[in-house]
Amino acid sequence: MGHTRRYKKQNNTIFSRSAKGVGSIFASMGRGIARLFKSGNQKLTIMVVPHTYGKVFNIRTNAFAIIIGIVVIAGVVLTFVPFSKKNTGSGVELSRLHEENKEALASLDELRDENNALLQVAKRFQSSLNQTLSLLGINQNENISKSTTSNSDLASLFETQDLASGALKETADINQLMTYLESSVQPVEQIGKMLESQKELFNDIPSIWPIKNGIGHVSFPFGQNINPMTGLWYIHKGIDLSTYRSGDGIVATANGQVAATGYDAKGYGNYVIIKHNHGIYTRYAHMSTIRVQKGDQVSQGDVIGTIGNTGNSTGPHLHYEVHIGSDVVDPAKYINIK
Predict the structure, then answer these.
(1) CA distance 295 to 121
(2) Closest to 325 measured CA to CA, from 276, 272, 263
(3) Beta pairing partners, 62
(4) Cross-strand pairs, 194
(5) Are 241 and 218 within 8 A, CB to CB?
(6) Which residues, 6+ apart, have CB-to-CB distance to 313 below 8 Å?
């Protein structure tokens, strides 16, 4: 029992001391807070003295008000700093967007110019196509449905029309141009089919340039001319083609059979005559060499000899003639019919 009482007495002593210590701490805190409020509540007078002889302003306040004012001002400043940075960044972004907008407008102007050029080309294409169809006896209106015919005339592309809000005129023009081109596909295909069906006819008539690879030029035309040898007027029955040299290949201008080859010292020199279908003959003269024989079958484009200066000639050239029956015609009317 004695030990128990001693332990209780020690516990009470410890509790009492602890309570006193906590009480003294709270008392000290209370006194500190009281002193703080007392010092903060002290009256202060702020005097504003102008440099001139104006009135002096007195502002009465306390320490708490000054501290609160300083905290508010610091908060406003700290808030304004990131806002200012954000605003500066927004200004830079606006400048960048402005430059991009200027570049976009410049690209749009360039696109409009290209679009106008495209429409001009399309207009010329329409005129040429209509003329070709007319010559071939093809009625374009019969090959285009009513739904596309209303948009097939490119003249409508150059008319001012009321467009939907926000729509660009160039967009409407391109759409109409696309509709017209789509409607033109069928007539062009018909022309291609017609030309394909006439391919054999083109191969049977003298329709290509008689010098290989299409080189050379007309040095003396068909018809009435002054003979370079005699200086007298005469009828030149063919055309002279020159490359300014000998040895260039001469080709058959149509499918046919070699009717004659030979040498005429006072006239044509080395020459070849080819018989074609439809009563057509062609003559090639003043040749350097002959590479075919009488009776040979030749195809359009086959090499039959080379340019030379044989016979009655003033220089290397090809004398080329086209005969239909007993008539001599101007070869230039048939060259490059294709």
Answers:
(1) 51
(2) 276
(3) 43
(4) none
(5) yes
(6) 269, 286, 319
The alpha carbon dihedral of 180, 182, 188, 190 has a sign of: negative
d(Cα 295, Cα 250) in Å, to the nearest integer? Answer: 18
Alpha-carbon gap, residue 70 to 40, rounded angstroms: 14
In angstroms, rounded to a whole number, what is the distance separating the alpha carbons of residues 16 and 13? 5
The DSSP string of 87-101 is HHHHHHHHHHHHHHH
Q: Which residue has the tokens 């101007």?
A: 330
Q: How far apart are the first and last CA of the chain?
A: 140
Given the structure tokens 């006439």, which residue do they identify? 198
pTM as predicted: 0.49
Is residue 305 within 8 Å of residue 287, measured between CB atoms? yes
Cβ atoms of 270 and 308 within 8 Å: the answer is yes
The pLDDT averaged over each successive group of 10 residues in the chain (338 residues) is 66 70 72 64 68 69 72 79 70 83 81 79 80 73 48 48 53 76 79 77 90 93 87 91 96 96 94 95 97 96 96 94 94 77
Counting every residue, how long is the chain? 338
